[in-house]
Design a protein that fits this description.
about 400 residues
């Protein structure tokens, strides 16, 4: 009897996390990021096929993120006005259109144009999936739930680069046709999601409605860190090929397995201990990973770098997204997610663009070393600003 009472008390203390809608929106998000990442990891090869250089690939990454950043605040405002279903449908249709456009007219200028369409579509899609997840996850287990939601990114990071590189062997028509089909599958899955329809007052379009100031500390910390991830995801495959390292597919699989393990087993720590542990250790792990690529590139260090990068991104991204969003209300949840993801996109795009320019100017090794300094800067932003903000789990737990 006492044991039953204790189990009931524990059950009551820990509200239900897993629901049908959470599982479905995780699967939709998996499709979104599989479409995105399988295109991302192969796009520099497609640019080379069209006669472009690494610098052009960097420009493509920057344009992709620039459009995503410009679109996201308006997506957030629309979401804060109660929209969910229409926004995501538009995004998923765009994710199908863009890869089809790459191969329909195989020209460099057309590829650049559709890359921008792809960036806008991603903004519509993952801003909405994150907001729907934020709607359905209980507050008491929010960081844990967002960590599990982020598993979609981990699984996509494991599957999509390898899938993309394999499909590329059959031609770019097969590759980007599959990417479009995955987006269509996401549309079918989303049809079964009971998308929340929060009752909110209509908010006029204004700067205050577009940018959520409470999420800015976490956003700034993530933005600086994403310089590293933008460089890594855009150029590690070509770097491995040029330096006769193991296949980049293996790198992405190792990175994603570590990312998945972090989110499954350590995500609850943010709710219990705060985000600081992941901000510091995640940045340090990524710093070491990039220095290994810069200083001693060989098979062993390549695998170690993959594991360290997986831990760094896997722990830091959901911790900071939870920090940015967990205090938001129904009226501000969309702008909180879109503001955070704007920082993600800005850092990612600048990281890819700067890395491409650095490769042309000083080569890969020095590029990795220079980009690694972003990890130090990210820790500094968190230490001097973000950890003192009212959205910090660490600050609230200490009080």
């Amino acid at each position: 009897m006492a044991k039953t009472t204790t189990q009931s008390a524990v059950s009551a203390a820990r509200p239900r996390l897993w629901t049908r809608d959470l599982v479905l929106i995780i699967l939709v998000n998996l499709c979104v990021f599989t479409n995105h990442i399988m295109s991302l990891s192969t796009f520099p090869f497609y640019i080379q096929e069209l006669g472009g250089s690494e610098a052009v690939s960097g420009i493509c990454a920057a344009l992709f993120s620039l459009v995503a950043v410009l679109v996201r605040p308006f997506v957030g405002w629309w979401l804060d006005n109660g929209a969910r279903r229409a926004v995501l449908i538009i995004g998923l249709l765009g994710l199908a259109l863009a890869p089809a456009g790459y191969v329909a007219v195989p020209m460099l200028s057309v590829a650049l144009a559709f890359r921008m369409v792809h960036g806008a579509a991603l903004s519509f899609s993952n801003s909405t999936t994150a907001t729907v997840a934020s709607d359905v996850i209980c507050r008491e287990r929010f960081a844990e739930g967002m960590g599990f939601f982020g598993m979609a990114t981990a699984l996509a990071s494991a599957v999509a680069p390898a899938l993309g590189l394999e499909l590329m062997g059959f031609g770019f028509n097969a590759l980007y046709g599959a990417a479009a089909a995955i987006s269509v599958l996401a549309l079918i899955l989303f049809a079964f999601v009971r998308s929340p329809r929060p009752k909110v007052e209509k908010r006029p379009l204004s700067l205050k409605a577009l940018i959520n100031k409470d999420s800015l500390p976490a956003t700034a910390t993530m933005l600086v860190f994403m310089f590293t991830f933008g460089a890594l995801e855009n150029f590690v495959a070509i770097y491995a090929s040029a330096n006769k390292l193991p296949s980049a597919s293996i790198f992405f699989v190792i990175m994603a397995v570590m990312l998945l393990l972090v989110r499954v087993f350590l995500g609850r720590l943010v709710d219990e201990k705060g985000e600081a542990v992941f901000v510091y250790t995640g940045n340090l792990a990524m710093l070491v990973a990039l220095l290994l690529l810069a200083i001693m590139p060989n098979s062993v260090t390549f695998y170690i770098a993959a594991a360290l990068a997986g831990y760094g991104f896997g722990g830091l991204e959901p911790a900071l997204q939870s920090m940015a969003v967990h205090t938001a209300t129904d009226e501000s949840r969309g702008s909180a997610n879109s503001t955070f993801l704007c920082g993600y996109d800005i850092g990612y795009g600048l990281g890819g663009g700067v890395a491409g320019a650095l490769i042309t100017a000083v080569g890969y090794a020095r590029m990795w070393a220079i980009v690694s300094l972003a990890c130090v800067a990210s820790m500094a932003v968190y230490y001097f600003w973000a950890r003192h903000s009212k959205t910090s789990f660490s600050l609230n737990l200490a009080q």
